[in-house]
Amino acid sequence: MSVGSVVLIQEDHQPRLHWRLARVEKLLPGADGHVRCVQLRTDTGVLVRPV
């Protein structure tokens, strides 16, 4: 995972062909220094999701 990567946002209630695309804007490390969450930019806004 790196800044600028294009990712699919998995949603349990949607079939795979309908998952949303997003771009990674920011990596959010945990207390141990490993990336635990990312900030994503979608066509509708910004979200924070676990990796």
How is this structure best described in words?
Residues 2-51 form the DUF5641 domain. InterPro entries: DUF5641. This is DUF5641 domain-containing protein. It comes from Capitella teleta (Polychaete worm). With 51 residues, this protein is mainly beta. The protein has one domain. It is built from no helices and 4 strands. The protein has strands at residues 6-9, 20-29, 35-41, 46-50. It has a 4-stranded antiparallel sheet with strand order 1-2-3-4, with no helix packed on it.
Notable characteristics:
globular, 0% helix, 4-stranded antiparallel β-sheet, 4 strands, DUF5641, DUF5641 domain-containing protein, mainly beta
The multimeric state of the shown protein is single chain
Mean pLDDT: 94
In this structure, how is the largest beta sheet organized? Answer: 4 strands, antiparallel
Q: How many H/I helices?
A: 0
- Give the N-terminus to C-terminus distance in angstroms: 9 Å
Estimated structural class: mainly beta
Strand order of the largest sheet: 1-2-3-4
Q: How large is the radius of gyration?
A: 11 Å
Query: Beta-strand level of the residues, as a percent range?
Result: over 45%
Number of strands: 4
Instruction: Please state the overall shape, judged from the principal axes of the Cα atoms.
Output: globular
Low-confidence runs: none
Percentage of residues assigned to helices: under 10%
Q: How many domains would you count in the coordinates?
A: 1
- The SSE order reads EEEE
Protein name: DUF5641 domain-containing protein
InterPro entries: DUF5641
Organism: Capitella teleta
